[in-house]
């Protein structure tokens, strides 16, 4: 489990395709502290460390992950938001993030807001999935590329988030622009509530 509070950015140093999977080798500020089998969030995707170098580590993304996320678009030298799993005695500064990306969204708007920046994202509208909690609500939580954010101005298929300068400078929001593809994970609590509501109404 993660909190959506990004620890830093990792840099992709190598990409290797193995059958339907892709191995990503990356460097990051805490690479030397990692252990094999440890879970790390990469742009919001939970991946397992499978090998280590002196200052680097490697993770494997399977085809299902590549289909649901933007990891398949990564290139060498790209920056990835990373977060280690939350310690059981840690503070939940963001919100509960599973590291199970639901789908991708496209950035369709970037607007200055007196020092901060508003980013608007659009994702495919699926009414059946929305009934199961795959949607955003005003002042609710959403995870974008692994970053825990608060939703504003949601519509059926879009939402906006406000990014403060610190978050902009310390995550890959610094490289984001109109047309960028991001990973999104909808709030797990909303999914459970929606499922329970429909389960009770189906009886």
Mind explaining what this structure looks like?
The chain is α+β, with helices and mostly antiparallel strands. The protein contains four helices and twelve strands, in the order βββββαβββαβββαβα. It has helices at residues 63-68, 127-131, 165-170, 188-202, and strands spanning 8-18, 21-27, 39-42, 45-52, 57-61, 79-84, 103-113, 116-122, 141-144, 147-150, 158-163, 181-186. The strands form two sheets. Strands 1-2-5-4-3-6 form a six-stranded antiparallel β-barrel. Strands 10-9-12-7-8-11 form a six-stranded antiparallel sheet. β1 (8-18) and β2 form a beta hairpin. The longest helix has 15 residues, at 188-202. It starts with 7 loop residues before the first strand and ends with a helix. The mean pLDDT is 93.
Using brief descriptors, characterize the structure shown.
12 strands, 6-stranded antiparallel β-barrel, 6-stranded antiparallel β-sheet, 4 helices, 203 residues, 16% helix, alpha+beta, single chain
Write the layout of secondary structure elements.
Elements: E1 8-18, E2 21-27, E3 39-42, E4 45-52, E5 57-61, H1 63-68, E6 79-84, E7 103-113, E8 116-122, H2 127-131, E9 141-144, E10 147-150, E11 158-163, H3 165-170, E12 181-186, H4 188-202
Antiparallel strand pairs: 1-2, 1-6, 2-5, 3-4, 3-6, 4-5, 7-8, 7-12, 8-11, 9-10, 9-12
Give a short overview:
By secondary structure, the chain is an alpha+beta fold. It has helices spanning 63-68, 127-131, 165-170, 188-202; strands spanning 8-18, 21-27, 39-42, 45-52, 57-61, 79-84, 103-113, 116-122, 141-144, 147-150, 158-163, 181-186. Strand 7 and strand 8 (116-122) form a beta hairpin.
